[in-house]
Specification:
mainly alpha, membrane, LydA holin phage, holin superfamily III, transmembrane
Length: 107
């Protein structure tokens, strides 16, 4: 049997198909969707509401921040996309709280 090239993985496949920016946005929306699902499950939010419109700028901002952090630390693209999803899940408040907690341990 001939040697097959290694499977590029999900993130690399999406990157090749639609580009890096779209992959970052998909990761951001996936992170926010996970957060929203938890809020719906806890009955703190309805499944659909106009409040979901506010998630789009948040996703865009967190994708830009995550991409910048990934470039700064020279993370591989797969790690950067995971970071974007994680930051979008946390949101600005959660990311700020995590950063403050980390800084307080360092100081």
């Amino acid at each position: 049997m001939a040697d097959l090239p290694p499977d590029p993985g999900l993130i690399e496949t999406i990157n090749r198909a639609i580009g890096g920016a779209a992959t970052a946005l998909i990761a951001g929306f996936a992170g926010r969707a996970m957060y929203h699902a938890g809020e719906v499950r806890a009955k703190r939010r309805p499944i659909l509401s106009w409040d979901l419109l506010w998630e789009a700028p948040l996703v865009l901002g967190m994708a830009m921040i995550g991409d910048s952090v990934g470039v700064y630390f020279a993370f591989p693209r797969e790690v950067t996309v995971g970071l974007i999803a994680f930051l979008a899940y946390l949101g600005p408040r959660g990311a700020g709280a995590a950063l403050e907690r980390w800084a307080s341990r360092k100081g």
